[in-house]
Design brief:
The chain contains nine helices and six strands. By secondary structure, the chain is of the alpha+beta class. The strands form two sheets. A four-stranded antiparallel beta sheet has the order 4-5-3-6.
């Protein structure tokens, strides 16, 4: 099972190197990468974040894998922070590990993965959260859970469920799994599509203080309008780092 899950964390290594999927290398730092993810998990995760029918550049001035921030409108890649050598080392730490659970934990905490998008055509998407969504779907599918059974579930901060936690912040965590009556949750839907706002709006309880915290009010208002799952999860992370009162 560990080897199967590792394909989820390594399947998009070519986006770090700027290679196309067709011309991507088969190994990086001595480990196999860019392999097909089983159970259709990669395609389903992609469908949660971006249109699948057409591949057209949506931001004419941006045509690379460096992510654009929805918070600032600027590229998330900072050459002062990420040199070629630094990126190679950080990526090696992400995909070179042979223990899948450790790989999952590293992706949750990764800053370099957050600097890249999952598609040059949709630069606001996040490679970090796309990969975590792929892993969560793959683990659920391997356990026999169908997509229509899956829910977005709110957990306590630091409560990481191997492979299924897709976000872990200072205040709460989010995972993809089957129904948990003790936790706030909402169904993902009958099929994979850009439905973040729909799921967020239907949570049985929200992890934000929207009654008295003006920053939480602003964050919540924007999350209720977003459709892309990877972009929304990345926005939560970026917003938490930006908050001037934290």
């Amino acid at each position: 099972m560990s080897d199967v899950m590792l394909t989820a964390f390594r399947h998009d290594a070519h986006k770090f190197t700027g290679e196309s999927h067709e011309d991507a290398r088969e190994a990086f730092a001595g480990v196999p990468v860019n392999q097909l993810v089983p159970e259709g998990a990669d395609g389903d995760a992609a469908a949660l974040s971006r249109p699948q029918q057409t591949q057209e550049q949506t931001v004419p001035t941006h045509d690379n894998h460096y992510r654009l921030s929805l918070l600032t409108g600027e590229t998330a890649y900072d050459p002062r922070e990420f040199s070629r050598t630094t990126i190679k080392g950080k990526v090696t730490d992400l995909i070179g590990i042979e223990d899948a659970k450790t790989a999952h934990e590293r992706w949750l905490a990764s800053d370099v993965a957050a600097a890249f998008n999952e598609s040059v055509y949709h630069p606001y998407t996040s490679l970090k959260y796309h990969t975590l969504l792929v892993a969560a779907l793959l683990d659920n599918y391997n356990a026999g859970n169908d997509f229509e059974e899956l829910r977005l579930i709110v957990d306590s901060a630091g409560e990481v469920v191997p492979f299924r936690t897709v976000f872990d912040g200072d205040r709460f965590a989010l995972r993809i799994g089957i129904e948990d009556s003790e936790r706030p949750s909402a169904r993902l839907g009958s099929r994979p599509w850009r439905s973040w706002a729909s799921a967020w709006n239907r949570l049985t309880a929200h992890p934000l203080d929207t009654d008295s915290d003006k920053y939480d009010m602003a964050l919540d208002a924007n999350l209720r309008r977003m459709q892309s799952w990877s972009a929304a999860l990345q926005y939560i992370e970026d917003f938490a780092e930006w908050r001037p009162d934290r």
